[in-house]
């Protein structure tokens, strides 16, 4: 029994280590993962997993059940407690307000003006002056609201 508790503990360490790594990388990296980033993240995950997991079918099943269970529990608790969700997943950050960059938030999130301008181009917007709000979402994507669209929703 004690051996199984140790294996459960190792699986939990794996799960929380991966969550921690993604939080350190930040929202921006989760939305814009390059091939290099993906290789590094997978390599880290495999290294941690190999350290935490012992060979054998029972051990693999136990590992998968514990990691999956922690993920479902985290999702459930995150839906019930928004502050916990924000701690684990992060929360949206405004990068542009009324046509002006919010420099402090750009620096905090590690986002460049060029990143925001790429998000603007995806939304069909050429000029920063046409942007009412640009937000770095918790998924790492940049969402943009045009001033004209914003005015329509306010009336």
Structure description:
With 155 residues, the chain is α+β, with helices and mostly antiparallel strands. The protein is built from eight helices and four strands; from the N terminus they run αααααββααββα. A four-stranded antiparallel β-sheet has the order 2-1-3-4. A hairpin with a 5-residue loop joins β3 and β4 (142-146). α1 packs antiparallel against α3, α1 (2-25) crosses α4 and α4 packs across α5 (82-89). The N and C termini lie far apart (64 Å).
% residues in beta strands: 5-15%
Shape: elongated
Walk across the major sheet and give the strand order. 2-1-3-4
* Helix fraction bin: 55-70%
Order of helices and strands: HHHHHEEHHEEH
Oligomerization state of this entry? single chain
Radius of gyration, whole Å:
20 Å
Put simply, the count of helices is 8
Kindly state the mean pLDDT as a whole number? 81
Task: Give the structure's gist in a few sentences.
A four-stranded antiparallel sheet has the order 2-1-3-4. By secondary structure, it is an alpha+beta fold.
Key structural traits:
155 residues, four-stranded antiparallel beta sheet, 8 helices, elongated, 67% helix, alpha+beta
Topology:
Blueprint (H helix, E strand, L loop, with lengths): L1 H24 L1 H5 L3 H18 L4 H24 L1 H8 L3 E5 L2 E2 L1 H7 L3 H10 L8 E6 L5 E5 H8 L1
Antiparallel strand pairs: 1-2, 1-3, 3-4
Helix pairs in contact: 1-3, 1-4, 4-5
